[in-house]
Design goal:
308 residues; single chain; alpha+beta; 13% strand; 11 helices; 2 domains; NADH Oxidase; globular; two-stranded parallel ribbon
Length: 308
């Protein structure tokens, strides 16, 4: 006889697939013992730069039972965003994840649907959906539930599809069948460390967030530090270098989520187009994109800094 845990787990994974998620892994909710000293050390060394929010809710970051009452399971989900087409080489670049609509909204809708479906088919299920804007260590949970391993660039990597995907969670109050972590397959490769122009990967598996191009172009509110001049490799929003050079990303396949398709004008924009961008064009091209986070003035600051 199939027990309920097995039945519910199979149902959740089938629903996740139906909703377009790449994969779904499940872990037992509890304190992340291995992550605690690592996070504390990282924060004490000020690797978060101006990202003060990383210091908030320290306990909640490490224990999902403090986020969801009576939490029993963490359901981790991956959603592919690898584009079929990328920007031209002769252009300022934005991270591939920001090509289409803001992923927070796209994924939140899918998670709501998954939770609703669980409530309809399983019964009373309490839970909350999380998409990287809450204090949840999503990469740690995804790795714990066997969806991949943490690479030397600190991103989650998989042998099947590389790393161009979003990670999200449902933390729920029902017991399920739990998955197990997979082994690390980075081996002796140091491609990501060697390729980072700002030397943000200070040692294998440790990224100094305050040295990352993504940090400078998105999180930093002050002026760009002069010592970064000439090191930004034409990235105007975010950076994909450590993912682009990762051998496992040879296996990335284009997503099939229409909402992640770029605005038609984005891929053909030249450096001149970027340098002459107006607020109206910014609003049109990045209407629902994550790029809006920098606001027009922030993007202009980045572009001015990139000019030779």
């Amino acid at each position: 006889m199939i027990d309920n845990k097995q039945k519910y787990t199979a149902f959740i994974k089938a629903e996740a697939k139906r909703l377009g998620f790449l994969s779904c892994g499940i872990s037992k909710a509890g304190f992340l013992e291995e992550e605690a000293p690592r996070l504390e050390k990282w924060l004490n060394e000020n690797r978060n730069g101006q990202m003060q929010y990383m210091e908030n809710y320290f306990d909640k970051r490490l224990d999902p039972t403090l986020l969801v009452e009576d939490a029993k399971s963490v359901i981790s989900l991956l959603l592919n965003y690898y584009p079929g087409e990328t920007q031209t080489d002769a252009s300022y670049k934005i991270s591939k994840y920001a090509y289409g609509q803001d992923y927070h909204f796209v994924i939140k809708e899918k998670l709501k649907e998954l939770l609703h479906s669980m409530q309809e088919n399983i019964g009373e299920v309490g839970g909350r959906a999380f998409v990287d804007s809450a204090p949840v260590l999503d990469k740690a949970w995804a790795a714990k539930s066997g969806l991949g391993w943490r690479g030397k660039n600190s991103n989650l990597l998989t042998k099947q599809v590389g790393s161009f995907f979003f990670i999200a969670e449902l933390i729920v109050d029902i017991d399920l069948e739990y998955d197990h972590a997979v082994t690390d397959h980075c081996g002796n490769c140091t491609a990501c460390i060697d390729a980072c122009p700002t030397e943000a990967i200070i040692e294998p598996y440790v990224v100094d967030g305050s040295k990352c191009i993504s940090y400078f172009t998105i999180e930093l509110r002050d002026n760009m530090p002069n010592e970064m001049k000439g090191k930004m490799d034409d990235w105007a929003f975010g950076c994909d270098i450590c993912q682009d050079v990762c051998p496992w990303n040879r296996f990335s396949k284009p997503h099939n989520e229409p909402l992640f398709n770029p605005h038609p004008d984005l891929l053909s924009m030249t450096k001149k187009d970027w340098e002459e961008i107006t607020e109206d064009t910014f609003r049109a091209v990045f209407k629902n994109s994550a790029v809006k986070r920098t606001k027009f003035e922030g993007l202009k600051r980045n572009l001015d800094f990139l000019k030779p």
